[in-house]
Amino acid sequence: MGGVAVESEEEDEFEASEEMDGENVGYSGDELDDEDEEASQDEYEQDGFIVDEVEEEEELEDSDTERHRRSNKKNKRESDKGFVLDEDDYVLLEDNNITGFRRPQVTNKFKRLKKTGRSIELEGKYGLSNEESIDRSNQDGSSAEERLKHSLFGFDEVMLSDDIAEEEEHSEDRSAIGDEDEMADFIVDEDVDEVGDLATKKRLTKKKSHKLSGISSSALQEAKEIFGDVDELLMLRKQGLVSSADDGSCAEKRLEDEFEPFVLSEKYMTLKDVAIREKDVPERIQLFEDITGPPPTDDKNIEEESHWIYDMLTHGSISPLVGYDALQYIHKKEIENVLTMIHLQKLDIPFISMYRKELCGSLLKDLEDNMQDREEIQHIKWHKILWAIWMLDNKWLLLQKRLIALRPYYCRRFMEETQIVDDEARHSFNKIIFQSVISALNNAKFEREVDDIDAKFNLHFPPSEEDTYDRKFKRPKRKSAYTILRKAGLWEIANKFGANSETFGMLLSLEKISDEVEDTKESPEEMAANYICSMFQTHKDVLRGARHMASVEIAYEPNIKKHVRGIFMEMAVVSTSPTHQGNQQIDAYHLLGGVKWLRNKPLSKFVDGQWLLIQKGEEDKLLKVTIKLPDDVLNKLISDASDCYLSEGVSRSAKSWNDQREMILKDSFFTYIFPSMEKEARSLLTTRAKYWLRMEYGRQLWNKISIAPFQWNDSNSEDEHAVRVMACCWGSGKSPTTIVMLDSEGEMVDVLYVNSFSVKSQTVADQQRKKNDQLQVLKFMMNHQPHVVCVGAANMACKRLSDDIYEVIFKIVEDHPTEVGRELENIRTVFGDETLPCLYENSRVSLDQFPGQPGIVKRAVALGRYMQNPLAMVATLCGPGKEILSWKLHSLDHFLTPDEKYEVVEQIMVDATNQIGLDINLAASHEWLFAPLQFISGLGPRKSSSLQKAFLRAGFISNRKEISMGKILKKRVFTNAVGFLRVRRSGAAAATSHIMDLLDDTRIHPESYELAKNVAKDIYDEDDPNEAKFTDDDMLEMVIEHVRENPQMLKVLDINEYAKSIFNRYGTNNKETLSDIKMELLKGFQDYRTPFKEPSDKEKFAMLSGETNDTISEGRIVEVRVCHVNENQITCAFDSGVKGIVSSHDYSDEGYDLTKVHKGDILTCKIQRINTNRHVVYLTSKASDLRNGTYNLHNRDPYYVEGVVSGIRKTEVSKSNRLAMNHFTPRMIVHPCFQNLSADEATKYLSDKKPGESIIRPSSKGLSFLTLMLKIFDGVYAHKQIIESKKDRTDMTSLLRLGKTLTIDKDTFEDLDEIMDRFVNPLVTHLRRMLGYRKFRKGTRKEVDDLLRAEKIANPMQIVYCFGVSHEHPGTFILSYIRNADPHHECIGLIPKGFRFRNKDFDDINRLVLHFQKNINKPPLGQCPSSRTFAAVVPLKSNTWAASEGSAYTGESTESIGDVG
């Protein structure tokens, strides 16, 4: 409560009325003075960061005075009435055991009038906010009390008595402020004034009703769960507000106050959404024009744009349809027709492609289909050319919009500069520049050209300090060197170097005949001497500045950049090479392996997504990329530039000027132009690669949605939804295996959970549970009689689930032949991809459609629905959440932004939806089928949402005239959409007796109904010429029905001849339309999608395993885990669960030894072949195969110049060694000394630690081993193997845990703590004693020997000795000594008990030294310690220890190396 005085409701009323008595309602005099004072302050003081201490003290004093005044008033009223506190205050008092307060007694009298929020409802009735109510009360001269009543109850006459009104005021006050934050007085609202600046204003009333606060997302979710569809809630609330308001603007404002902005945006209820919904223009065209502005509609502009688009499509270097050769056959006039239809007639792309084929025939060609006879093979098409025109139209209009904006800006800046400049010469020079810029701007056709012109203009006319968007705060302006030099007057000498930049550009591009450059008589130095000043103190400084100005002007000249750009983009080449890091990481199997060594690849040869990989490699610092001109092209370009810029004079002065000009050209081209061109080339390659990737991404999506629904073998029904699907999803452990039954319309009718249906265990209990589950599945299938069973291919275990279902089907047919229907006799089990169902499972739309259902049920529903209607299922994920963008369709699609992806998705969905059509009546009965409605021509998410609600309310419609649903669809949008909406007897309309037009069940547009009737009538008349002529509409309907029932009458119709007769009669060419009418009369809305096909063996393998050619292919080196070992083969498993087999003769070059391989070991193998039918991969782990076999280098770039075979062999060997050393299986072990690190990572971890630090990590030898790694000295690390035993091997999880018994050599430990206490800590103690011993010397053996020799020279009569670290065998120390002249060396082993020397253990170094001195004349027993020491004894070939020095591992034993990992 923070010291806030407790006030009653009556006091609040009194204070509120007191505030309203003032001239400014809601403000006291002090507040007004404070506001005036605040308004004069700087904005930085207003934002609250700067506090005036004096004012703060004054405010405190004022607040004390005000509080004292209020306290006196309150004490006076307390005698008449007690405190009335908030409910939270009473609870707080009770919790603290404070007595003397009690809640007021609330009677039931006038209970009906004490509903909360009454005042707000009455205000809403009049559409007035609090501010408006108070303003009006001031105007009518009413008293403060009346105005307060009006603000609370509205302007109706108060019909109740005073006592009732008083009690009602108390009730409403409590409801209005009961839930308010006590600090609400300190909240200020932010407003935007007329100039766009933020201004603060205090709230008008002290307390505001909680009903005006925003509805949170959590509350919205609760509303969804309780009331269902929130769309209806929003719409009903909006309708209620509109009906209670005088005007819509106030109601809309109130709606925005009640709901959070993102909620209104998602539900398309913002002001902009409402405007789009009500405007009679296709929604996609409206959104298009919101970005580009209104398009030009005159013939000249449309013709100019069509020429530009044609050039971009056929000759442009960055055409959206890069790589297609069929573009040369398109017609320019048809592009103009399409632009006219879009801009003038407001026709959407699907409508144009379907009903205006005569005007754009060449633009409808399928670029990937060479079939010309459309009647022979009919299929739906992705109209790539039309969408490319749509995209280029957007670019053109944005370009024109920019040009229109630049022209007045340039004129204004020129006029400003003219008023500033006093020098007539400078003014003339500026005028020439301005005229050339305007002329170039008028002729600009491409974005790059406009960029060049804009850069030139800003160079000569830089933005002034007044050109700022914020009038209050000026951003610090950085002046360029060119601007400083120009103001210093060096532009005059810069113009003396020869031709100006514009003339030079025209000469270089051969737009102007070469003029001889005239040299001045003065030398450059003499002329520069005239400009020496404090800024430029020598003539060299002057010339350097003038050269800079000249080179910058050349670099910014549009003609020069255009000329160089043309040469650079055509002739430049790209080369790549790996960095040091890349050389280590990139091998033949790496994603960048194919672009590691590119040499001089031309820009024009990058036609796929290769550049995106190169760019990513460069960002990750794996590749170095250079883009440059070949030397011969570069030299010719510089030579041509020199010929145009240098003079032909031979005098000494001319030579001096030419020297300056050469430096200018060199600086301009190599410092500015070529780096700029390289940047543009990178942008060009990125744009081109993304266009290609968009096409590939779209192609993959098209292949997913252009598949027809699954059709039952014996089904001849016209209803594509007549298949009942049983969908099965494998349970991952947390969820049981789930089976869902969908009816023919995709509605879920039953669910079955089976936990033990596909268990592998052979125990009696598990087998009994499995039989029970099989019986349940059998009954489930017999009850529902599915046509097809779809099994989700989530992992390899799903293959077993499919086999178990086959077993149940077989049992049904064998044991219950009389009860089996036709469905079960021909039932098929099909694998389905679960990637899309998983997206649906986690989507927001699934929460709306299946509230409360487990995720696996939603996934199974989506799996079955995709088989019934792929288009509708994909469209379901294209809602506001856009979950469809998470669908992985291409290996490189992560290079596309979400907006770029959705643009492609929308094109694909629009084309497919409109060519397939949408059954309105069926969708009205099954709402999930409405998902594609937003992609219907003319519609969008906003228009379709309101139309969908209208259809759902109506239940069904009987003809296309009703599609407009009153005024929801107006003329233009209705014309665009109506032909793609199918009206027939389906859903709720199946039982109606309404007469339906047969043509409404066809793709024939209503505008062509008369033509279709004439076609049917002519065919009927030709078949029976003696029949009476029909004129009545009902009789024409009978004719159409007769023709459809006799398709042979239509098949014999020659469209070409009939079209000629129509042309002769009416003068119109309707050949394409007539052809479509013929096809639709034969069968309306015939499905031209690709028939459903079961996945091939290769596709099944990919779905079940998740493996692709990039992860599993012949010749690749992979890692597998050993699962089972027998005498003939080793059975392994990939991480994906794919089974791998290593036969006995493919295990090792030294033969097959069962004792050397154990369950859980990791093997490095090479793939020999893949059997996708059996889902088995055959492997070899022979060292010779790993070394000699080369990876299949398919699709190698012809510009890859690195030695292929030798390079790959080296890579394979290094990769196999690296895999053996660094790859491991992460273990489920929790201990402070254990970390899941590879050998390299552990070495890096210990590199900055002190000697004696250790770490325990996984071993690459398998899941039964660990490795103890100890830092001996800087750069010297020793490894000790820990063997685990007594492990639970029932499952993989148990194998990943720590064994119950741990063994190091012959010592046994119970856990890692015991290892640290009994083994590691003693080792470290003795290690540090040795490192601190007085006779210990640092360095290698050679360095220590040199130290001993020096000591021997100093003390020739002594036997000198010292200790050192063995770098060859880490974990071992070397005792070096010199008796006569040559050094001798003996090994000392480090063990937990101390040191081992000559097969004896010593717990103290001094005792070891004493033993050595006494027995120095005896020969040493060996050069290295026994295997019980911690050293890495490489020559013994024991697999117990291994060693490392730095990051390099020494030794000859393959066993020791194998354990290092």
Structural account:
The protein is of the alpha+beta class. It contains 56 helices and 28 strands. Strands 18, 19, 20, 21, 22 and 28 form a six-stranded antiparallel beta sheet that branches. It has a five-stranded mixed beta sheet with strand order 8-7-6-9-10, sandwiched between helices. The N terminus and C terminus are likely disordered.
How does the SSE layout of this entry go?
Elements: H1 9-20, H2 29-39, H3 43-46, H4 53-78, H5 87-95, H6 118-126, H7 130-139, H8 144-153, H9 162-177, E1 188-192, E2 198-202, H10 217-227, H11 230-243, H12 248-258, H13 261-266, H14 271-278, H15 283-292, H16 299-315, H17 332-343, H18 349-355, H19 384-420, H20 424-443, H21 447-460, H22 481-487, H23 491-494, H24 501-508, H25 524-529, H26 539-555, H27 558-571, E3 573-578, H28 580-585, E4 601-602, H29 610-619, E5 623-628, H30 631-645, H31 652-705, E6 725-729, E7 737-742, E8 748-754, H32 764-784, E9 788-792, H33 797-815, H34 822-825, E10 828-832, H35 835-841, H36 844-849, H37 855-868, H38 870-876, H39 898-916, E11 918-919, H40 920-925, H41 941-954, H42 971-977, E12 981-982, H43 1009-1023, H44 1033-1045, H45 1047-1051, H46 1055-1066, H47 1071-1082, H48 1097-1105, E13 1117-1125, E14 1129-1133, E15 1139-1143, E16 1162-1171, E17 1176-1180, H49 1183-1188, H50 1204-1222, H51 1239-1246, E18 1254-1258, E19 1265-1273, E20 1276-1285, H52 1292-1296, E21 1301-1304, E22 1307-1309, H53 1312-1331, H54 1341-1354, E23 1360-1365, E24 1372-1378, E25 1383-1391, E26 1394-1397, ...
Parallel strand pairs: 6-9, 9-10, 11-12, 15-17
Antiparallel strand pairs: 1-2, 3-4, 3-5, 6-7, 7-8, 13-14, 13-16, 14-15, 16-17, 18-19, 19-20, 20-21, 20-28, 21-22, 23-24, 24-25, 25-26, 26-27
